[in-house]
Design brief:
Keywords: Membrane, Transmembrane, Transmembrane helix
Protein name: ABC-2 type transport system permease protein
Order of helices and strands: HHHHHHHHHHHHHHHHHHHHHHHH
Oligomer: single chain
Largest sheet: none
Organism: Actinokineospora terrae
Distance between the termini: 30 Å
């Protein structure tokens, strides 16, 4: 463990920008939405209708989880935001652990530190402490915010601690995946695959009363199944600590069983001669990016089928509250809740595509820090061709994801509603309309990489987090329009029946993205490599 404290300080120093953003944004959301409940459901009748409509609606349970008691502001907030907060906290934990373990080995820095007075377990311990302590801090701040909003302290603590418990579990899972694979991208991919499986298990168990036990297999379901503001089963937090301790112990057992820079999963030797496709920068980029693109495409297709199939049952989400109907329609359409729901879903796919776009675009940064870029650029390949070959996937890849998700959701909804032709084209068009907003995020990431490479990773993910959270929660908590306009997803027109489509916002978004990409390539061309 020698050197653990120094590595903790180093991690905090490196994450001094992105870490506070994650903590503050995730912490303030629940408490800031409490006041919205009184406005959305001002009468006892509206709250009773909400309870009746959501309690037995499997379509709603897939999205938000089980509705145990929506007659109080605390119960509603825990139901409405609990599952998404658990998902974001889990992602935060995965990225943090991988960044300070496997990514450090990829760059060679951990081997350099290990040759000095740094113990073999120091890096893993430091990353687990940083991610775990941050998850606990987020949970405590969530509890404090909800309690300060006037909610019962016991319920606020139950929700905050169980959300923190989800972060602890995925901290441990990421610690294990960092030992299994050789590259940070593979470790992140494996951990997020586990997260995706946990989401599907939660959706299956929550939407199937006869198989509700399945939800207990998913750490994402534990915050809501602790029944905050109802039973306040705080022992679920102890369950999360126990599971995290067991999984983390596995990671510590794996550390001495592998070499620094290697994973337990052996790398396959390549062929003796390279394929002709690898003779160009684009071919090399395709070889490096194709696995991620295929995995993301499969994931959004599955999600599109699930969300599209449950669209007809979404009407029970709001009960008889006219206020909520108006908000949903403002967010996604004017011709009923199903249209608004479909628009919200394609908006979610747009945000997921932005995550992929940043991941694909930042491959240039990981190639540069691993010194692979120097080997390529030492040949006749120009900087613009090399960086542009990876940017192709940040630009075209999201289009593939949005087309696949729109087709899957439209096909599933069209078959169930008996209106396949209209719903297929309608949902596909709404999904593709998200593309310019995704390009803006990808363009900003390209600009950060070219102009400020040291801030490329943290800054790009900060842009994604702010854009997504403003679009998801800004309208609900009543943020000013000037604040909401910071997110490019707010400017995407809603392609719903009865609305007038205008291409002006899409043209402006595309123009902003184009300027950012050109500026990023121009600045990259003039700076030093590494």
């Amino acid at each position: 463990m020698t050197g653990t404290w120094s590595l903790i300080r180093l991690a905090l120093r490196r994450d001094r920008v992105i870490l506070p953003i994650w903590i503050v944004v995730l912490s303030v959301i629940p408490g800031s939405t409490v006041s919205a409940y009184e406005k959305l459901y001002p009468t006892v009748a509206a709250r009773a209708s909400l309870n009746a409509g959501t309690g037995s609606n499997p379509s709603v349970a897939v999205l938000y989880g089980p509705a145990f008691d929506l007659s109080t502001p605390g119960g509603w907030s825990a139901w409405r935001y609990g599952s998404f907060l658990a998902l974001f906290i889990a992602l935060f934990a995965i990225f943090t652990v991988t960044r300070h373990t496997r990514a450090e080995e990829d760059s060679g820095r951990l081997e350099l530190l290990g040759s000095a007075v740094v113990g073999r377990y120091a890096a893993l311990t430091a990353s687990v402490i940083v991610a775990g302590a941050s998850s606990l801090l987020i949970g405590v701040l969530i509890a404090a915010g909800m309690a300060s909003a006037g909610l019962p302290v016991a319920g606020a603590l139950t929700l905050g601690l169980t959300l923190a418990g989800t972060g602890l579990v995925f901290t441990a899972i990421a610690a294990v995946t960092a030992q299994l694979t050789e590259y940070s991208r593979s470790a992140n991919g494996l951990a997020t695959t586990v997260l995706g499986a946990a989401f599907l298990l939660r959706a299956l168990g929550d939407s199937t009363p006869s198989a509700s036990w399945v939800s207990w297999l998913s750490p994402l379901a534990w915050p809501q199944w602790s029944k905050p503001f109802v039973n306040n089963d705080w022992w679920v937090f102890l369950l999360a600590i126990g599971v995290a301790a067991v999984v983390a112990s596995i990671a510590y057992q794996l550390v001495p069983r592998r070499d620094i820079g290697a994973g337990l999963f052996p790398s396959r030797p390549g062929p003796a001669t390279a394929a002709k496709s690898l003779s160009s920068p684009l071919g090399l980029a395709w070889r490096l990016q194709r696995g991620s693109l295929f995995g993301w495409t499969a994931a959004v297709v599955v999600m599109g089928v699930i969300f599209g199939a449950i669209a007809d049952g979404i009407g029970g989400l709001v009960g008889d509250s006219e206020q909520v109907k108006q908000i949903m329609e403002r967010m996604g359409g004017t011709q009923g809740l199903v249209d608004a729901y479909l628009s919200a879903i394609v908006g979610l796919f747009g945000m997921l595509s932005a995550v992929y776009a940043v991941q694909a675009g930042l491959r240039t940064r990981s190639e540069e820090t691993a010194t692979h870029a120097e080997s390529v650029l030492a040949t006749g390949v120009s900087r613009i061709r090399w960086a542009g070959s990876h940017l192709v996937f940040a630009i075209v890849g999201p289009a593939v994801l949005l087309a696949a998700s729109g087709l899957a959701a439209g096909l599933a909804h069209g078959l169930r509603s008996g209106d396949l032709g209209h719903q297929l084209s309608h949902t596909l068009g709404a999904a593709m309309a998200q593309l310019p907003a995704v390009w803006v995020v990808a363009g900003i990431a390209a600009l950060l990489y070219g102009a400020w490479p040291a801030l490329a990773v943290s800054g790009s993910w900060a842009v994604v987090a702010v854009s997504v959270l403003l679009a998801l929660y800004g309208p609900v908590i009543g943020l000013a329009q000037a604040v909401l306009d910071v997110s490019p997803f707010v400017h995407v027109p809603k392609l719903q029946p009865g609305t007038t489509f205008t291409a002006t916002p899409l043209i402006w978004l595309t123009g902003v993205a184009l300027v950012a990409v050109v500026a990023g390539l121009a600045t990259f061309r003039r700076r030093d490599i590494g």
